[in-house]
Amino acid sequence: MNKKLLVFAVLAMVGGTIARADIVEQILVKVNGDIFTKTDLENLQVQAVRQRGQAVDLKSEQADAQLRKALDEVTPQLLVNVVDDMLIVQRGRELGYKLTDEQFKNAVESIKRDNKIENDEQFQAALKQENMTMADLRRNFEKQMIRSRVEQNEVFGKVGVSEDEARKYYDSHLAEFTTPPAVTLREILVAVPSDGKTINVGKDDDAKAKAEQIRARALAGESFEKLAADVSDSPSRSNAGLIGPISVKDLSPDFQKLVASMKPGDVAEPIRSTRGYQILKLESSTGAQTLPFEQAREQIGDRVFTDKRQAEFLKYLEKLRAEAIIDWKNPEVKKAYEEGIAARAKGVTK
Asked: How far apart are CA 80 and CA 29, in angstroms?
């Protein structure tokens, strides 16, 4: 879809008409005195609709309805995120966080390296293509840096996982730390020639007889590995017939039953498969193994920490909102914001 048409359509849907440059910017909300405008929202809506990969046919009769639906889906969470970001950045500035010239210079150089930009002229051209100035880029970097420092110092750095919490998680999630039974096999395949439609009984009997002879040679003491390398029709012959380790649950029911009756070193009778006759030797088997708590402790800490961090961060945002002066100038936008807050409370984000 033509991007310019999409921008025009979204702006038209939001405001009815595109505001002229000489019209005063419409403020939608003030957060502790900082403003968020109609143009700010429109820009975020355009980005969000594009990121969702939603194609809207502006020539269709359903274009308006499609755009309205897309905007209704993205706007509530956009507004929640905007207010959260404003509150976090304000808090960071209260704490004295700011982006230094050296930090910004390093960030720019990193962008140049990652995008193979060789000089300042190319970099400026890239910014222009994104409709962005160097000042815009710096503001974005500073907001990201401030947010990261606030999150780490005010929330994440204070979140820990106690031994009791780790133990409870381990006891209630043992399956996460348990490796299922597994086997390591060697195979020899005697393929049965086929046209894919019919079975040649004579060729099938010959293949079965050959497989039985090969098994007899293995039972008589010949090296199974050498036999696999010499006579197997399976690609595994290049590895002396080795297969695995394989989780037992990934085997077919028939193979599971067969393996369950074998001991390491056993060579099973030939089994008819879709490829022909397979002779299997059980190399080794391991039962289900549960990682001890002490060895699983780090994994547990990471998993519990992630959940706790998210919960504590949401509490922190609620605290910032409760202490803030949020002055809504547009009742419809306020309603969308409240929908976003309600969805977050239910653990749902669109």
From this structure: 12
Phi, psi of 186 (to 5 degrees): -125, 145
Going residue by residue through the chain, which has 350 residues, state the pLDDT in tens, using 9 for 90 and above: 333 333 333 333 333 333 334 446 799 999 999 999 999 999 888 888 887 765 555 455 566 777 788 888 899 999 999 999 999 999 999 999 999 999 999 999 999 999 899 888 999 998 888 888 999 899 999 999 999 999 989 988 887 778 888 888 898 888 888 888 999 999 999 998 876 666 777 888 899 999 999 999 999 999 999 999 999 999 999 999 999 888 888 888 888 888 888 999 999 999 998 889 999 999 998 888 898 998 988 888 888 888 888 888 999 999 999 999 999 999 999 999 999 999 988 875 44
What's phi and psi for 272, nearest 5 deg?
-80, 125
Q: How far apart are CA 8 and CA 197, in angstroms?
A: 60
Contact 264, 285 (CB under 8 A): yes
Judging by beta carbons within 10 Å of its beta carbon (0-12, 13-18, 19+), is residue 229 exposed, middle or buried? Answer: middle
Q: At 19, is the secondary structure helix, strand, or coil? A: coil
Strands 271-272 and 326-328: unpaired
Query: What is the identity of the amino acid at 210?
Result: K
What is the C-alpha to C-alpha distance for residues 217 and 215, in angstroms, rounded to an integer? 5
Q: Which two tokens stand for residue 61?
A: 């009769």
Phi, psi of 88 (to 5 degrees): -65, -45
Q: Which H or E element spans position 8?
A: helix 3-15
* C-beta separation of 225 from 240 below 8 A: yes
Q: Helices in 162-292 by DSSP H: which ranges? A: 163-172, 201-219, 224-231, 253-260
